[in-house]
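Many introductory courses stop at the sequence. We go one step further.
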Amino acid sequence: MPTEQIPERENSFSSMSFQQEMPERQDKQRVMLRKLGSWLSNICCFLFLSFLMMLSVLYHLFMNYVKFDKFRHPRLRSPKPAYPLINQKDLKMTPDLSYYCELLGLQLSEYRITTKDGFIISLYHLFDPSNGTPNKKPVLLLHGLLQSCGAYITSGTKSIAYMLVKNNYDVWLANNRCGFEPRHTVYTKYDREMWDWDLSEMAKFDLTRLIDEVLNITKWPGKLSLIGHSQGTAQITLLVSKEMDLGYNDKIDNVVLLSPAIYGGVLLDEKLFIKFIKGIPNSVYNIFFGFHAFMPIMMSLRNIIVGTPIFGFCSYTMFSFLFDWDDQLWDPKIRTVHFMFSPVYVSAKLMKWWLSNKHGQGFQGGVPILKAQGNWFHSDCPKMMLVVGGKDNLVNGDLFINKLYNEENMKERFIYRKLDEYSHLDVLWADDVLERIGEDMLHFLSSE
């Protein structure tokens, strides 16, 4: 009997060892596969970005030196400088947003807050230290895709944020999750779980947390107002819609939607790079762009060359090529400043949500991001002001205006301004944007 039990014990011990080794081997295999996939994705993204950069430079040279027409877009400039406290030639190119605020006589303070799903995001308070008037109405500003809150400040005295501060609003600027420095209470930027989100989570977790924090810090007894540009308008619209029904309408009174990204424009059906992303199978997308950040090579390059003239040139030519706009309505002296605060980290899943109608929401020409049938909004929906660019082919603001006017109970609760010569970013950076919509915006924000 003992001699029969000895092999059994050995077999049992061997089986236990094998069972312990198997999960370890599987974990190692998973790690190796993830690393291999990450390397493959980085190579694909590098080649893709290099190809786009080459095309964008060629496009820029062709449009400016071959097809140039000085009467094509006459420059419209406001008479005042963007930063009156310094000679424009001495303006530093730095990714420090506080530097530009201080040139305007303003201060910027940062609050780091944590969302319910663990992301640590930045909320900034922009204020005039010489004006301590209490009980100012808070306004929260949300940026667009691949941008940050700096987009609302870089125009200096001609910026929307500056106008609001000088008109006694309590101005708050938000950065969405990840931004320039991905932060989470549990995950690191190398974890796949860190990037498992799209615009739904940004509306549900980021925006709600930002609103609650502003109201908590300010102790404002009433409602706050929201201003969004492009993707920021989509976040706001999802928040106040029946589709998400998050119950925040009692905290918001007025919303301003700049270049509202609710219906896709014709550009989405014309650009080859968008067709490529929309058309590839889900498995190919995951191999090409990975499960982590969308083309993190962009951020690596940004961190190397940000603040140099080549960075501003590359950023402008790339975005101009991809989205068919130019800088003819901007102040040329501060064009590089505008791009100091972009691009930012976003998830590959978010880009899939925007661009892939097979695997995401599918932002495409003439199609809305909200899929609910019938009315999109409750009767207590905040009032809306839409600012639409007539040359904005990335989004279709006219369709959203028609939806609000003809199909929603919003006829008395929204206004719009259409600027025929404006494109997608002109609503932020055009030299005369405050002259065109500033007074109307202030009047709208003060309405009850």
